[in-house]
């Protein structure tokens, strides 16, 4: 469960230097990716009135956007493994911006599902995954801090976009606002340009490498074949080897063996349960305030309050997670954060006025920031940096299902009861259950890892003892062989001289 060592990654992370510029790029890219689905909820009430949609129908916009953002995870991981983070993020920024600009010409809510939900959402997936992966490559010792700073982009962008969206709506309407927001999303292309490639061999190492060494490495197989006069076989074994090679190549792109990883499966199940209730409270926060009679700007400002608290909670959580007391047991800290998040939702219906909603937004921002800051750090702690790219892709494709269904289910509850408090009760109960599940299962996982480590050490000791006893048993025979060879040596020399 400890961080992966440098030699396994194949290179030494700089833990600073240009890495801080990479964190800045990830800050911008991840900020837009995560904050956008929350910030556009400011327009939901007006879009709902414009198209005559229900609460459940309007919630599908954020839901499809989040689902597309997470469902594109495997594709994003494959592209990162093939082309690197820089071109993928730049293309993602272009795609998300184009989706928002095209959505300004929508004549039905179904078209908003396609342009904002599918096209822009898939563009955000190309922004999100590479940003998370590249930070993990640039940092090791300071990785929790770097992840916390990068993840802080979401609340910073959200605190800016929420009041900005209300201002844009008053000036240009929701169509003109979407056009301007699409232009802002093109800044993700600039952020992607900061992601300088970092790999096992730097440019200076390539220059120092002897060119004859490359020729020797390339010609190794041919030399062995010609020297030993080996002929390749074309039977069943050759076909089996080809199949194995294809599977190995696929696992390099997307490692499916992670589904046999105990810690990964615990993380996956707990997160699937959690994501059914993770985003719905944010999606309905502004409509809930308007439902209680709060004016538009004050309702939108609740998202800014949440984001401001979240802004400080993420790097603060990263600092706490990087301490020697928390980092070895960071999974427990993650479980607590989820349960605390659920407790805030359970308390939300007690807020019946604007002051109560402000208090809820403060605690919700703290809890939400804690979960987001630890979301990818705990996964990297479980699987290591080398398998992290595949792990993110597999996790996000599975999590897209609860993300797709969560907000519409919350909207359906609001439509059925005509009140938001039952939706918050449902979300709170799910989050608390997910936190308790992860706490218990991570305790079990830690115990099993300690047991397996003790068994491994015991086997190593037994193997050393057996090797030592065999050496003691073989020593008399070795002496006889050595004495025999020494006695036969003069005869051998004599025969060689006679010849």
UniProtKB/TrEMBL annotation:
A Pfam match: MFS_1
Region ranges (Disordered): 454-499
InterPro entries per record: MCT, MFS, MFS_dom, MFS_trans_sf, Proton-linked_MCT
Keywords noted in UniProt: Cell membrane, Membrane, Symport, Transmembrane, Transmembrane helix, Transport
Protein topology in the membrane: Multi-pass membrane protein
Comp. bias (Basic and acidic residues): 454-481, 488-499
Subcellular location: Basolateral cell membrane
Domain (Major facilitator superfamily (MFS) profile) ranges: 19-446
Subcellular location, principal: membrane
Transmembrane residue ranges: 18-37, 58-80, 145-164, 176-199, 264-285, 297-313, 333-352, 358-376, 388-410, 422-444
Gene Ontology cellular-component annotations: basolateral plasma membrane
GO MF annotations in UniProt: monocarboxylic acid transmembrane transporter activity; symporter activity
UniProt catalytic activity: 4-methyl-2-oxopentanoate(out) + H(+)(out) = 4-methyl-2-oxopentanoate(in) + H(+)(in); 3-methyl-2-oxobutanoate(out) + H(+)(out) = 3-methyl-2-oxobutanoate(in) + H(+)(in)
Family listed: Belongs to the major facilitator superfamily. Monocarboxylate porter (TC 2.A.1.13) family.
Protein name: Major facilitator superfamily (MFS) profile domain-containing protein
Taxonomic lineage from the root: Eukaryota, Metazoa, Chordata, Craniata, Vertebrata
